[in-house]
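Run Copper-binding protein MbnP-like domain-containing protein through structure prediction, thanks.
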Amino acid sequence: MRYLAFCLLAVVSLVSCSKDDPTAGKLTLAFTNKVGSQPLVLETGQYTNAAGEAFTVSTLNYFISNIRLKKDDGSTVSFPGQYFLIRQADSLSRKAIVEQVPFGSYSSVTFTIGVDSARSVSPVSERKGVLDEASYGDDSMYWAWNTGYVFLKLEGTSPVVDLNSAGQRKYMYHIGGFGGMTGTTANNLRQVTLPLAKAATVTASATPSVGITADLQKLFNGKTLLKLKDLSTIHSPAAGTVVADNFPSMFSVQ
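Sure, done. The structure for Copper-binding protein MbnP-like domain-containing protein is below.
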């Protein structure tokens, strides 16, 4: 019995150790949210979009997934199982640490804004961490009625928006929609590829940090010029496509 117990312990130890690849390290994607040249400050920050409309921001959240890194030799490494929820209200969340990155030098980073269809429809037991739909509290990032995640949530106020029932001039952009299993809803997943001016080299002793800026000014003025006066509330995938098309314009490497 002692021999059997020892063997079982040895097997468990080997399995545990195998999770850590000795030839892999980490890379940090550090996100900074801004509005043009101004830092994003929730509630109190005063901004003006490209249409000349004044606005404030009370909430900014977005999902990052399906990260790929391109090596200097042109090959790519994918990290499909790592998901991150970037929240302006949580400074720690704005540092996405990519695990198990093979040692080497990387010249570009690619990621998706949103959560892919396969993971969106997977069993609840397989959606943990930032994908746990019960973990958001009042700041929900999951559409229970639409069975999918809100890829980007932007909320705030603007004097150009009509008063709501609570007497507030509030805008709400809740952008989601992964296409549905039969393509019955809009597919608002968008991919971003950013070349790095300087290669990020991952070694046993070095964990590089890639600074990425998300500019809300570009969200309002990307492929399409958005006006809060004309479009102040979005709660459906179909209505959100015009905003999703502006996602790639938001991001740049610092």
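The two ends are 60 Å apart (CA to CA).
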